[in-house]
């Protein structure tokens, strides 16, 4: 597709010669029209997009300088080459002030003009390409930032509040968005995935990374604006944005889930199950929706490959749900290293299992089995077992032994974790101190929670939990706040430009930095700096 050029001169033979003599096609241009004065030219510019303007200076009704002034005032984006028979420097100076790209004297040397046009358009296209690349980079940066925020919202580590300084600029749009939620989960109990359990941690991380890439590429290829968030080893939450007035339709959503599962199966050679939240979810609902889908997938081990939650018919006995609430409390206590709470919840589980066994004995074994699988995955995220211990536990679990054995297994697992809780707590504190030092050293570049977690040897999900518990704020809240505080100091104490400061605190794009800074401080960077300059003048 060619760019367009508009020819403006009150001498018709000049515009005819320009149209015929200049090799427009070779220059990647086509003549969009011609005008006899500035008024006609403005009318044409308002009707169509033009990338280049060749314009005489002296014309009736409206001259070239006035035309250029109005073009710049109205922020019409086109490059301008002025043509004139007058060698008066005042015209040249005025043209330069209005942002004219070049100036060619009449009589027109067509070979020279062709070279000027080629140079101007080459610069224009290079700038356009650079801007497009920067916009794409910015768009992806915003998507990644949103994914980090969405993870924290899903895990209930932060709340979405209009007054929260973190939600600035594009992130603020999350408030109005509604999402389709699809939870994709690897069935770790199936025969197909036993090989996966034998993979080394490095290989497993690469596999998780590959699945994320496959999911993102498939969604992007289908034009779906999305976030793909790895919740833990072998589990992802896919959020797909929807139009504001759209109605939730099950069939298209199931087709999306099937498309994603097929792509993973074809490219990574592993099968997933999908749980779909039955309606759209706003940001305030994400945590509850995720828990409901995850709980549904765990409470109904015989579910279809793709299932919507809550299910249509049987919503699950109240006893099952009560058991799972206790199970989640137990896992939370284990993560905290709270031995007394662990013992209380294990006793509670034993009591609930006895009650369940008296009424629904057939439901107890699969329910408990899936809970132990869930416990094993959570413990793996915390890296509490050696490779040999993990393999031994998986082998015991594969035998599907009796309820009493499974209950003993739970006690042994939780006891092993809590026995190490003191040492683990000390190690966790050291890991978080190292993580903070790592972040402070690297605030000048793009940082991901995955990179920080890998640096201290933890899984992303466990790192996020420990970080929140240790510092009282999420990873992205901490990083953004530290960057803003560093920027405030640099604005107040140095003469560096805003763009330079933005880069030095990790923002490649000044506009995005300015949005975050304004939300954090209430001032744009220039006004913030001006306040300190006024204070300095007052002191002196």
UniProtKB/TrEMBL annotation:
Q: CDD domains of this UniProt entry?
A: REC_YesN-like
What GO biological process term is on the record, naming one? Answer: phosphorelay signal transduction system
What would be one Gene Ontology cellular-component term for the protein?
Answer: cytoplasm
Q: Which residues carry this modification: 4-aspartylphosphate?
A: 56
Kindly indicate whether the keyword Cell membrane belongs to this entry: no
Instruction: Output the Pfam families linked to this UniProt entry.
Output: HTH_18 (PF12833), Response_reg (PF00072)
Q: What is this protein called?
A: DNA-binding response regulator
Its taxonomic placement starts with: Bacteria, Bacillati, Bacillota, Bacilli, Bacillales
């Amino acid at each position: 597709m060619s760019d367009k050029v508009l020819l403006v001169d009150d001498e018709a033979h000049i515009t005819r010669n320009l149209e015929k003599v200049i090799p427009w096609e070779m220059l990647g241009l086509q003549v969009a029209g011609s005008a006899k004065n500035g008024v006609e030219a403005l009318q044409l510019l308002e009707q169509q997009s033009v990338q280049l303007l060749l314009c005489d200076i002296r014309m009736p009704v409206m001259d070239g300088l006035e035309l250029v002034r109005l073009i710049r005032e109205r922020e019409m984006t086109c490059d301008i080459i002025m043509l004139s028979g007058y060698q008066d420097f005042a015209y040249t100076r005025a043209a330069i002030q209005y942002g004219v790209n070049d100036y060619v004297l009449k009589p027109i040397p067509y070979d020279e003009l062709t070279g000027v046009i080629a140079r101007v358009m080459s610069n224009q296209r290079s700038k356009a390409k650079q801007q497009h690349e920067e916009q794409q980079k910015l768009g992806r940066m915003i998507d990644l930032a949103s994914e980090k925020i969405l993870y924290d919202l899903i895990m209930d580590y932060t709340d979405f509040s209009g007054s929260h300084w973190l939600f600035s600029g594009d992130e603020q749009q999350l408030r109005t968005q509604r999402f389709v939620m699809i939870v994709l989960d690897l069935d770790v109990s199936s025969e197909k995935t036993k090989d996966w359990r034998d993979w080394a941690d490095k290989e497993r991380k690469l596999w998780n990374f590959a699945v994320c890439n496959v999911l993102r590429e498939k969604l992007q290829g289908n034009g779906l604006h999305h976030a793909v968030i790895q919740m833990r080893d072998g589990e992802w939450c896919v959020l797909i944005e929807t139009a504001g007035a759209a109605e939730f339709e099950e069939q298209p959503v199931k087709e999306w889930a099937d498309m994603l599962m097929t792509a993973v199966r074809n490219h990574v050679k592993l099968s997933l199950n999908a749980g779909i939240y039955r309606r759209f979810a706003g940001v305030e609902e994400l945590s509850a929706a995720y828990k409901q889908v995850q709980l549904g997938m765990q409470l109904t081990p015989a579910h279809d490959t793709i299932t919507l939650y809550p299910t249509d018919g049987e919503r699950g006995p109240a006893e099952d749900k009560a058991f799972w609430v206790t199970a989640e409390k137990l896992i939370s206590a284990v993560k905290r290293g709270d031995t007394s709470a662990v013992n209380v919840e294990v006793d509670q589980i034993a009591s609930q299992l006895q009650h369940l066994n008296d009424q629904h004995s057939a439901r107890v074994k699969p329910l408990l089995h899936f809970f132990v699988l869930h416990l094993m995955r959570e413990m793996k995220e915390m890296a509490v077992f050696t490779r040999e211990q993990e393999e031994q536990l998986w082998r015991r679990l594969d035998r599907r032994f009796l309820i009493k054995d499974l209950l003993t297994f739970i006690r042994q697992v939780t006891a092993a974790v809590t026995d190490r809780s003191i040492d683990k707590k000390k190690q966790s504190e050291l890991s978080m101190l190292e993580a903070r030092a790592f972040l402070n050293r690297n605030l000048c570049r793009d940082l991901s929670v995955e990179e920080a977690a890998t640096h201290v040897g933890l899984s992303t999900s466990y790192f996020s939990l420990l970080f929140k518990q240790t510092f009282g704020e999420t990873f992205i809240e901490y990083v953004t706040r530290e960057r803003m505080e560093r920027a405030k100091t640099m604005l107040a104490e140095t003469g560096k430009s805003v763009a330079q400061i933005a880069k030095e605190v990790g923002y490649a794009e000044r506009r995005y930095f300015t949005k975050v800074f304004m939300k954090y401080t209430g001032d744009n960077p220039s006004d913030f700096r001006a306040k300190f300059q006024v204070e300095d003048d007052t002191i002196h």
